[in-house]
Specification:
Distance between the termini: 27 Å
Strand order of the largest sheet: 1-2-3-4-5-6-7-8
Bound molecules: 2-phosphoglycolic acid
Oligomer: single chain
CATH class: Alpha Beta
Number of strands: 8
CATH architecture: Alpha-Beta Barrel
Radius of gyration: 17 Å
């Protein structure tokens, strides 16, 4: 498994259901990754494009956006941890709010997927976050506590797991919590039951070229999970450079 603690910050590009071979050719030829070994850049394309982008690897790592909770067998259309491992994929996003909301993924599913990823030496990037309604009802910390309790495998540790805090209402909306709110929520996660102090906790939700620097330099933030802005090579380059 890749040594996540050797990096000071993570920049994870979540391409969602976007991209094709031509896009990847252009994106990878334009992307400039600074020669800073402390920054870990991960690109997560669709599963179909994992192998193609892996062969273009240049200073970045490759991650999947999802994986099956089943090891093998009669599960048409699923992709297993073993297959990701065959492709030498280093990271996998798990429990993104789009998977939780659109595909009804539960904390139990997220936990089981993450456990198997760790067994296959693939780092799960486990997403947690509250909806707007939960935020407005003052339930953010309760929601995060339950997600932490139930989604993070018992044998997770700061060497094998990354946590991504993504307020659901900030994803793709251009809205973000204030910098102070982000930092405080990350502090809450790090201190939760005294368990996650040493974990890398990254922030996601409308990270752009014009706010990434401030967000990533917050004391409790160890990087960013970037959706929309990671599809533009110049924006993503700027986010990493800063
Ligand atoms: P966004 O998406 O940067 O477009 O808000 C983030 C995410 O979905 O991980």
């Amino acid at each position: 498994m890749i040594k996540i603690n050797s990096f000071s910050s993570f920049f994870i590009a979540n391409w969602k259901l976007n991209g094709n071979f031509k896009f990847i050719d252009q994106f990878t030829s334009e992307l400039k990754i600074p020669n800073n070994v402390a920054k870990c850049v991960v690109i997560c394309p669709t599963s179909i494009h994992l192998d193609y982008i892996r062969n273009k690897k240049n200073n970045f790592y490759v991650g999947a956006q999802n994986v099956s909770q089943h090891k093998e067998g009669a599960y048409t259309g699923e992709i297993s941890c073993a297959s990701l491992s065959d492709l030498k994929i280093e990271f996998c996003i798990v429990g993104h709010s789009e998977r939780r909301q659109i595909f009804n993924e539960t904390n139990t599913n997220v936990n089981s997927k993450s456990s198997q990823l760790i067994e296959h030496d693939i780092v799960p990037i486990i997403c947690i976050g509250e909806t707007l309604e939960e935020k407005e009802n003052g339930e953010t910390n309760d929601v995060l506590s339950k997600q932490l309790e139930e989604s993070i495998p018992k044998f997770s540790n700061s060497d094998n797991t990354i946590i991504a805090y993504e307020p659901v209402w900030a994803i793709g909306t251009g809205l973000t919590p204030s910098f102070e709110e982000i930092n405080n929520t990350h502090k809450f996660i790090k201190n939760y039951n005294n368990k996650y102090n040493n974990y890398k906790i990254i922030y996601g939700g409308s990270v752009k070229a014009n706010n990434a620097k401030e967000i990533v330099s917050l004391s409790n933030v160890d990087g960013a999970l970037i959706g929309g802005a990671s599809l533009k090579s110049d924006d993503f380059t700027k986010i990493i450079e800063d």
